[in-house]
Amino acid sequence: MPAANIEVEVLIVGGGPVGLTARALLERWGVRTLLVEKHRELSPFPRSRLVNARSMEIFRQLGLAEKVTANAFAPKFGRIRFRDTLHDRDFATAAMVGVAAPIPESPVIGVATSQDRLEPVLLAAADAQVRFGVELVDLGEDADGVVASLVDRRSGEETRVRARYVLAADGANSTARQRLGIDTTGPGAIGAVTTVVFDADLNSWCADQPAGVYFTAHGSFLPLYPEGGWAWLAPTPEDAEHADWPGLVSRALGPGAGVRAEVLRVQHWVMNAFVAERFRAGRILLAGDAAHAIPITGGLGMNTGIADVHNLCWKLAGVVHGWAGPGLLDTYETERHPVAHRTLRQAVANTQLMFQAQNLRRQQLETGGAAPDGIELPWSDRYFAQLGLVLGVTYHSAAVLTDNSPSAEPSEQPEPSDTDTDYVPTAAPGHRMPHLWLTPDRSTLDAFGEWFTLLTPDPASWEQHDAVPWPLRIETLGREHAGLCDLPPRGALLIRPDGHVSARWHEAPPGDSALRHALTAITGRK
Fold first, then answer.
1. Whose CA is closest to 141, among 180, 185, 101?
2. Strands 228-235 and 184-199
3. What's the pLDDT tens digit per position in 1-41?
């Protein structure tokens, strides 16, 4: 294999929100990375719109939540509205639970924002090298690592990078996935869509009824930034090259609107729906859209990718630094693959419900029943919240131990059903540790970081336990919180760096080896 020009521990391919989040997480772990992005700059398009509560918890852990919120819309925009045209009254509306107002299940709320406002915050969150305009063209693996061939798209210069691992977050048309020959399952391409970014004075129609998205019979309208700007999303017309985009947008606004749109940018894209058959091939791991392309309805796609790398990066750090065995990386696919399939099913169901709502309205109009009170939406606010999917993801793998067991056998609990959209907090192994306020401004989630955390009402019973070489902190969990976690006075919870419970003891075990045995099993360290 040809010699490499550059050596790093992890090569990140793709400079969208998922790749940039991975770069920030790995830098916190002290892992040397290089990120390459084939485009010459960060995306100038709004693209992904919703940062959900779980992603905001991850950004809070990175110290970024306030910066993300500062660039985002106010909570009152956490709502969707259905209208016949944009300047008509609502015929239906629904809140985005977890975005429109605080929720007791989390210390943060999600936000409606634009990807081109989020990405600069993520880019500034780490100092590791980023090379824009550089494309991955080939990959080769040997016993010691991966050699990636990169090409500068402007100069044509080729560079070879040797990395111990490659994290491929290079989108739905992932070069890495194609080079590895990994197939996908699912519907695939489900529609061609055009995003038109435009300026127009629409405040008189929307200022008193703000929303993150307005669904109309003529496409969807999205306010882009708190200070102004709009996007219109609609199926791509047949002769897109010669389309009159200002005219199309103006007509979509409604007859007699009297508003002319100033079109700034137009982007054509394909809405995909698939999950990769594998998330790992040797030392190369897929994340984000490279691993699963999720339709946009419900805002699940980017957030699922951010959760991917939150799951993966601590495992990569453990292997790179030597306190975890390579087998720990197998648990990434074991844990995240079922989540991707469940999320895809939910997004498809969301899309069907949106069409169902619009069909109900169409039937109402055709029968002359255009009553001012509109229609009743075919779902509940609790369903639309999807907190069971956002906060209730459960992992079953060798990195999760059953109660009181030092065994590395995965839990046999079944996955929640696809229709289980409610979130029930629990501290059972495999679940995200519930949010509880330890102090007025410090959550249990704030105790987690680049280390394992042992939460216990009785830290003295656990301090003699040997945890070297694993990074570990012991935190006191007040008796009032221990009861909520079904934890007796001398019990303990072992929390992974990604905030999921990896082991639970109802009593402090005799001797000082139980914690070591658990960490050995969880991390696969020989």
1. 180
2. antiparallel
3. 555 689 999 999 999 999 999 999 999 999 999 999 999 99
